[in-house]
Amino acid sequence: MAQRVNVKSVTVKDEPTARAQRRRQTEERILSSARRAFAQRGFERATIRAIAAEAEVDPALVIQYFGSKQELFQRSVQLGSVPPLSGDVDELVEAVLARIGMKIGSLPQATLAMMRSMLTHPEAADQARATLDGQVVELGSAIEAEDADLRAALMVSTMLGVTIAHQLLDLTALRGASPQKIAELLRPGLRAVAGVDPQ
Amino acid sequence: MAQRVNVKSVTVKDEPTARAQRRRQTEERILSSARRAFAQRGFERATIRAIAAEAEVDPALVIQYFGSKQELFQRSVQLGSVPPLSGDVDELVEAVLARIGMKIGSLPQATLAMMRSMLTHPEAADQARATLDGQVVELGSAIEAEDADLRAALMVSTMLGVTIAHQLLDLTALRGASPQKIAELLRPGLRAVAGVDPQ
DNA sequence: CCATTCGCTCAACACTTGTTGACTCAACGA
DNA sequence: TCGTTGAGTCAACAAGTGTTGAGCGAATGG
Fold this sequence. Notes:
The structure is a homodimer.
Chain A: H1 18-41, H2 48-54, H3 59-66, H4 69-77, H5 89-103, H6 109-117, H7 122-140, H8 148-168, H9 172-175, H10 179-194
Helix pairs in contact in A: 1-2, 1-4, 1-6, 2-3, 5-10, 7-8
Chain A binds a DNA duplex through helix 1 and helix 3.
């Protein structure tokens, strides 16, 4: 149970002191609980008390570490950098589909927290809008057809809708569906919206 | 300002008494404020006090009339019957598109309230899931291709995504877009998902 | 005309929320 | 070894929430 810890930091460099180590551990534990809570209850229903309880920590500590519930939320939804899409339209569509095929069902809690809260929490809405707008621009600049941005926005909206229906609403018809199957059925439609022959 | 009212109910039948009339008026006024509040803040952030204030009424009256915030919400999201879809696949796709073409931008507050709350309010989620599941079945039973229900679910999800992105998130690229244009761009994609040649 | 109904308000309750400041005590560094 | 730092707790506060019960006064109807 008790984990042995170097007392004097014998090794050469920046061996983190036991205290700092412990601090980062609890901080990470809190963040993890927070992400889970925000992801499945949304910003308003997730309470600091519940988060603290799951992290086995006093509520006051959460505030002491993160400043406020809002700041905790911001830290919670910060996601590891998403590699930017690139290539021609065909490749982009495939990339988007692959993202669904692989990642749906295993989306990071940060993303789910974000999506869960974006309709009711104004700051989450702003951030979501910014993120989605960004993807629209990325996609749009590769589309040659007229109304590139509008088409891109519709593609993004489609993926958004499928993700919400599947991950957050748990639509019955999507419950058992395999991500690959979904991607496969979506492909012709997405290609059509992107303005290339559906093939 | 003062509207003349029959004192003795001279006319033959069921002339509503002034009191009852007044009551239904305030009840409707409260419902209207509630719908607006739920639609733009969501269930948790919409407060009874704010609703009552906008309806120029005491908060207690809201509870007295509707029982609880939850019951008020249920009454608020009850929407006038949606005509069930019917016909073959082509007609169904057109009907769905027409619904976007006409109604996006002028969706009833009840629907918006529902959608706004469905990710964070469990009861709203249940009701939304039920409604969407219903539409999936309607659509699915008309699709001849394999995976009819899955295809139907993807169509419904697409419409859901577009509506959310347009009405609730206010995506920049969708901001100015005309509903007809959106429907037009969506058509080939939807037809593809429905399993008919995109044409 | 008068007793009763009933729309409506007022003030308060009970509870939950985020947040704060004083405090404890083990780890730390010299 | 000893003073200091800092992780973590405890109890409490202030604000806001939904909800309740007593009460007022006008409409009602006999």
